[in-house]
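Report of the visiting student (M.T.), summer placement. My assignment was to run the structure pipeline on a short list of targets and document each run. The first record concerns DNA-binding PadR family transcriptional regulator.
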Amino acid sequence: MNTLSYGLLAFLAREPGSGYDVMLKIQPFWQAKHSQIYPLLAQMEENELLSSHWVKQCDKPDKKVYSITDSGIRKLKEWMYKPLPDPVTRDELSMKTFCMWMTDRDNAIDIVETRKSYFIRRLESFQSMQGKVTEEHKKFGTREFYDHLLIQKGIFNAAAGLEWCNWVLGILRECDYSEPPVLVKP
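After the run finished, the structure tokens were exported:
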């Protein structure tokens, strides 16, 4: 079982859904493609962590709806007690920032502006979600309380990313160069 498998179980523990439904729900937390999700769902069904049934649809192909089993619930609960590993960071912006000395200022600004736009969209999305959270749902112990915590985490992360982008853009716009530096081979 990998982290994505546990994430799929977590969403199916809340409510049954098709592979497509679960893929849409997990995207804000974990970037995964259908080519990753569907084999995991099939494997977990084979391991009796999930069950499924087909739902006939009129204008669309029939869909397979998954539900978590008691074994799946036990597996998910066991995972909750496993130690949390350090996070894995894979951010192309960090790698491009590391290489910005190889490009011109305008391109560097474009790179950071692109990520700034992303953070603005994320922040607006999370703030919209937060606006729908009632005071009742902010009480410890409800499922919605943990949704509230995750939405707030998303707001903090997006706001921090946006702040960093604005800081970098301020520095880049003060720089006095327009041509990329000449690369000298050692």
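The mean pLDDT is 90. The longest strand covers residues 50-55. I thank the supervising group for their guidance throughout the placement.
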